[in-house]
Input
Amino acid sequence: MPVLRLVIPTPLRRLFDYLPPAGMTATELASLQPGVRLRVPFGRREVTGYLLAVCEDSSIAANSLKQALELLDPTPLIDPQLIQLCQWATHYYHHPPGEVYSAVFPKRLREGKPQQHGAPGWTLTTRGKGLPKEALPRSPRQAEVIRMLREKPVIDNSEFKQQNISTSVLRSLRGKQLIETCAISPAEQSATSHPGLTLNAEQVSALAALRDSPEGFNCHLLEGVTGSGKTEIYLQLIEGCLQRDRQALVLVPEIGLTPQTLARFGQRFSANIAVLHSGLTDAQRYRAWEDARTGTAHIVIGTRSAIFTPLAKPGLIIVDEEHDGSYKQQDGFRYNARDVAVKRAQIHSCPVLLGSATPSLESIQNILAGRYQHHRLTHRAGSARLPGIKALDIRQQTLGAGLSRTLIDAIDATLTSGHQALLFLNRRGYAPTLQCHDCGWIAECSACDARLTIHRRRQSLRCHHCGDTSVLVRQCPTCHSEQLMAAGLGTEQTEEFLHTRFQQWPIHRVDSDSMQGRDAMQTLVNDIGRGEPCILLGTQMLTKGHHFPGVSLVAVIDADALLFSADFRGEERMAQLLTQVAGRAGRADVPGQVILQTHYPDHPSLLAMLNTSYAEQAREMLKRRQESGMPPAGQLVILRTDCANADHGEQFLQNLRRQSARHLPSDAVLIGPLPSPMQRRAGKYRCQLLLTASNRRTAQAAATTLVAKAEEIPARHGLKWSIDIDPQDVF
Ligand code: ADP
Ligand code: ZN
Ligand code: ZN
Output
């Protein structure tokens, strides 16, 4: 008796065998293909499973196998290549297959609902068609719907919405059996491109090299300074891909998927562009997914999880700002979409292009090893020039909300000469600490090892780690003194200062507190785009994706905050961040300057930043990684525990270490267990065991052993453990 091997959405690292549904004939069984869904009993629930294989027999006795209830799809929803990718991810990340497949399927399909062919639309019923012209005199909106459907037999929801016809009007007509829903199959249209810019010499040779590279899988890194015209290369490369009737998948960082980016694609191509990001409704996401899957969408643009979108005819994968941390999922299924993209291109035998002004050391290592082809753009496109960078020694200088006299003068000069200034401060809120002057009490989060941030405008204290919010106290809870002080600096405080010092100029604060809603940022960017002199003050949000052509001064208010990171990637992140911030200046024909305020003007990382390019710094940093054996020179894996009891996590990892040590490859090294740097977060104590190895094969073998052993050790109540392959942060 054949058995069905299924992926089931559970946190268990295994597959499950089922007997075929009752009444399935041998012919039907023989024609079953991987990638179809089945409804199956699981424990006391019914769940949606995904077929991986039809097997001759099972390791489980036939009489204890359960029977699948129903086949949900006549044909597979995902193709063998995507299944292969999921299998690879399951093994490489040592993650439960059920959760990997859940990353592929949209909610509707995970819930076992039928596929929906085409977008939902409305049409007249026979009864509706027979309605006399002057019918429904008392419901003009309803009469309007009937009139519209007489002119155009099928209309989708969005078109009704544009005409201000609400769903309740449509529902009442359906109630009267005058109209009914139907599916609109999108018209197969072919994609066309509008002419691009005339490329400069560097762009020409990069594009030629990309186009001339042999067919099939190959991996490219486009390293181009900010504003060098990388996006223009993407667009022209996609044009070729569309001409060959293939789809292009473009990944952008979380923060990079701006209306500006989309508009640029929309202007260049007359094509169906599917957009996938976290702000979509389930229905919108499903629509985009189906369009990508059926090939109706020519271009798919999305953030991290879009890497698992099915594609009917993949031809090119692009990962923009490949160094960006948002490509790594930090909880649950901890994959890196950039690395998955490379694997996916390999499976599809298509090229993959990684682009960045500040490539990750991983990618640079791959260039040096000859695995990736390297293309460089060293100049800005058009007439724009790169800004000059200088460090400003603020030791002994009087500061107003973090700003030195020299910087204030520079802002003044920028504004009076008609330009814009961008100030970078990577800390939101008013101040990071509330302290009692009389007894030294400090406001701390009750659930995390962290201080609470003062948010003065909302009169609250907030934990930036667990989100906990409480009212801003006026009295010390310990000694009842009212001498409470705000220590340290946040954007709210600097904004307040700027308002008094630069009264006559507009000031825009840009952080996740001030920019609520998707449109807020776009409205601001449009505003700034008009070029009127103003001050932009913001966090990381300002540094990516947006072009501010009128900005001629960029200042980093607290460069020191970036200098002393305990993480092994600290200096890499600092160099990337500063280079990206600096890249906002002088984008058009306004030459820019960049000022870094610091107490450590002689710090080696800062000097490197001033005197060498990012490319040179990166190669130096890579040498240091080679000495320390840290990634990408060596391999790193972390096992983490998370538990309400402080000791249980450490005991679990001690146990794991003891039990696996003998079984690990000889060159795998275990470090720990150690408490995580922020040991307690959202009420849970966190502990970690690090594994380092000189090569990937050893790391994978060791990870397999660790996971197998960890699964054998009984976890105390409430203890959760997870494995992180190629982690982003250690400390
Ligand atoms: P990047 O993606 O490297 O930041 P973009 O492609 O966004 O660069 O280009 C930066 C700016 O330069 C954009 O305003 C773009 O329109 C312009 N640009 C790009 N290529 C050219 C070119 N060949 N000639 C003139 N302007 C260009
Ligand atoms: Zn006190
Ligand atoms: Zn907290």
In short: The chain has 23 helices and 35 strands. Residues 103 and 308 are 7 Å apart (CA to CA). The mean pLDDT is 91.
